[in-house]
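Quick one, tokens below:
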């Protein structure tokens, strides 16, 4: 049994060993922490991922960080990491850079064909995750639900082969089921077409979600997935501000 000589509390192995953490409560990389403090650390949830390091504004960055220390900057809405510690007796000249492990972004692909019904919006069910470092993509609903508030840029390309004689087709990126800036195409021949669409949305960081939908007027068609090693239909986005 290990005893903290300062607090006389029983120490438990730190499950976060091997990862850089903030200096709050004196916890550093690979250290052990008193058992009561584990609960406090594990309760710091800010974006659906349990954060095990300090959080605050740019002005609240630790004045004397250690090399590799991670801090979530709420002003930048980014995780930053200390890459250079304070030099000499100068306090506050440590260098912070964006953490390479942080990206509020995603991209998914449609690797199989999907049947599109006639004259009704159809949710596109992307089945392959290319990028989703925060695990905000819900495969069951084909929605991305970002857990950091901000303005995001979204893009999609939906490829299809229409039935000759259909009036038109539309591709959408929807926020909470509401359309914005659809792309439209009118076709008279049965060949592969692609409808790219993009837009930006302000997301609340909790319940707001985006998905992609397709509409085919007059009759059904086929939304194409992958062929010749290429994904014809895809959907993605990332945080702007």
């Amino acid at each position: 049994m290990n005893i903290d000589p300062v607090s006389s509390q029983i120490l438990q192995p730190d499950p976060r060993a091997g990862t850089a953490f903030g200096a709050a409560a004196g916890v550093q990389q690979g250290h052990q922490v008193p058992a009561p403090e584990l609960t406090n650390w594990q309760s710091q949830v800010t974006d659906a991922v349990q954060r095990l390091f300090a959080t605050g504004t740019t002005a609240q960055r630790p004045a004397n960080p250690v090399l590799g220390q991670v801090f979530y900057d709420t002003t930048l809405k980014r995780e930053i990491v200390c890459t250079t510690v304070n030099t000499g007796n100068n306090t506050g000249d440590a260098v912070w850079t964006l953490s390479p492990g942080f990206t509020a972004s995603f991209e998914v692909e449609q690797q199989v064909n999907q049947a599109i019904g006639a004259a009704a919006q159809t949710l596109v069910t992307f089945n392959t995750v290319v990028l989703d470092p925060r695990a905000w993509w819900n495969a069951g609903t084909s929605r991305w639900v970002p857990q950091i508030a901000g303005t995001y840029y979204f893009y999609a390309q939906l490829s299809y082969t229409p039935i000759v004689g259909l009036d038109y087709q539309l591709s959408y990126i929807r926020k909470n089921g509401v359309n914005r800036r659809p792309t439209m195409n009118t076709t008279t021949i049965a060949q592969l077409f692609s409808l790219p669409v993009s837009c930006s949305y302000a997301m609340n960081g909790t319940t707001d979600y985006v998905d992609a939908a397709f509409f085919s007027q007059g009759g059904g068609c086929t939304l194409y997935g992958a062929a010749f090693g290429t994904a014809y239909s895809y959907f993605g986005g990332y945080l702007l501000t």
